[in-house]
Write a structure and sequence with these properties.
8 helices, single chain, five-stranded mixed β-sheet, about 35% helix, alpha/beta, about 270 residues, Spore Coat Polysaccharide Biosynthesis Protein SpsA, Chain A, 14 strands
């Protein structure tokens, strides 16, 4: 079983689609936590619609995506947590497929080192993504199945996603959504709550994973749809991203760099 953490702010239409795909697409009764980062009234009709199948963490006031995500993880009941944006759409049978991927690839994260002992490396499992427009992430599948909720058909996405399933994985999984052990997330300190709107906070977190010898596994067997950050766009996003880079430089002493070939994060 998986604890799903979905932070949300002011995107009720996308949240509705996200929850529909999560609830109707699962085979088991997983824990689905929606973290409402203020503005409950904006999302109320959607939350009421799904309240019998999800858990609602109402923060009442806006605390930011990073703190909201951390609070969601703290409320997780299961060993594994899946962090998902509210502008993601879940594929069919996402839970059993991710569990299968986890079991298959987790066994590949043991290595024999100099004293002939088995060392097990912690893992972050990332499903691949389907996006409507080309992006910096080379593994993403580019297919315009809709750029907003009104132009998107869930059944068509589920059919398309099933047809692009591939066996295998690689080690460039430093993107959302991602799944890992709750204890590992907390051990790393989770999202750094000093980042505004979460911009660059994901790079910061994945850098901590890289520096702590986590294996960042991207599975080709499971793909989520992503509206390409449609829920947080425009001038506020650009400002938050720039502020995030400046805070990262203050924190680490250097800007966080992204390797477009390996998707790894490093310090210049």
């Amino acid at each position: 079983m998986i604890s799903v953490i979905i932070p949300t702010y002011k995107s009720p239409d996308m949240l509705d689609l996200c929850l529909q795909s999560a609830v109707e697409g699962q085979k088991n009764q997983n824990q689905i936590i929606v973290v409402v980062d203020g503005h409950y009234d904006v999302n109320e009709h959607v939350l009421n619609k799904w309240c019998h199948t999800i858990e609602i963490l109402n923060l009442e006031t806006n605390v930011g995506l990073c703190k909201g995500t951390n609070l969601g993880v703290m409320n997780a009941r299961h060993d594994k947590v899946l962090i998902v944006n509210d502008d993601n759409v879940f594929p069919k049978d996402w839970d059993t497929r991710l569990e299968e991927d986890w079991n298959n690839y987790h066994s590949n994260c043991s290595r024999t080192y100099w004293d002939n002992l088995e060392r097990s490396y912690p893992i972050v499992l990332t499903p691949n993504q389907i996006e409507p427009y080309p992006s910096m992430f080379r593994d993403f599948v580019i297919e315009n199945l809709g750029t907003d909720v009104d132009s998107f058909d869930l059944d068509s996405f589920w059919e398309f996603e099933q047809n692009i399933v591939k066996a295998g994985h690689n080690w460039n999984g430093s993107t959302l959504p991602f799944m890992m052990y709750k204890k590992d997330y907390l051990r790393l300190g989770g999202w750094d709550e000093n980042y505004e709107l979460g911009m660059v906070a994901d790079w910061d977190f994945f850098l901590k994973c890289e520096l702590s010898d986590f294996k960042m596994c991207r599975t080709k067997n499971t793909s989520f749809y992503h509206f390409a950050s449609a829920s947080t766009n425009g001038e506020a996003r650009m400002r938050a991203e720039q502020n995030g880079h400046e805070y990262a430089k203050y924190k680490w002493g250097s800007y966080i760099q992204h390797d477009t070939k390996t998707n790894k994060k490093y310090l210049r």
